[in-house]
């Protein structure tokens, strides 16, 4: 029978490791927000898994809203030109907003998002990502909560896709070469 995990060459983070780290981050977020209501803003589609698990690991009151964003570019290289495909339903003015991402790679998506959201005058704006690649550090993209810093490899699972697939993998790892061919 088909099992999507058979397509991995290496597991970087097991389901348990991901969940354990999430619980740590949630406790930190609960402590930092100190009883304030949080508006979680997830970036579709990748952040769906993190949003579901992080929100349930929190004990703070929270609401969830979503944005969909597309970045234009030739081939696999992002151009940094970003367009909103689906905007928030919520007015974030005066709200404590926490952006939730699965991964920050170049940081282009996030840079655009931060500028855009700040113009709506939230009470506060913070960023949480489950994974972060080295380019985000090089580009000095400021992130408040990071699950794991990972090497510059193509990884899938836990929301991260290859051509739309593998998001439903509960672990995170690298794809076997046979998948590409
Ligand atoms: C991925 C990921 C982040 C973004 C990070 O989303 O989920 O949102 O890329 O890349 P960056 O830091 O270089 O901007 P993608 O655009 O692939 O859409 P998806 O979430 O629907 O997979
Ligand atoms: Mn995404
Ligand atoms: Mg993607």
From TrEMBL:
Keywords from the UniProt entry: Cytoplasm, Glycosyltransferase, Magnesium, Metal-binding, Nucleotide-binding, Purine salvage, Transferase
Phosphoribosyltransferase domain mapped to chain residues: 21-162
Protein localization: Cytoplasm
Cofactor(s) this protein cannot do without: Mg(2+)
SUPFAM superfamilies cross-referenced by the UniProt entry: PRTase-like (SSF53271)
Pathway: Purine metabolism; GMP biosynthesis via salvage pathway; GMP from guanine: step 1/1; Purine metabolism; IMP biosynthesis via salvage pathway; IMP from hypoxanthine: step 1/1
CDD domains: PRTases_typeI
Catalytic activity, EC: 2.4.2.8
PANTHER family: HYPOXANTHINE PHOSPHORIBOSYLTRANSFERASE, HYPOXANTHINE-GUANINE PHOSPHORIBOSYLTRANSFERASE
Protein name, UniProt field: Hypoxanthine phosphoribosyltransferase
Species assigned in the record: Auraticoccus cholistanensis
Name of the gene: hpt
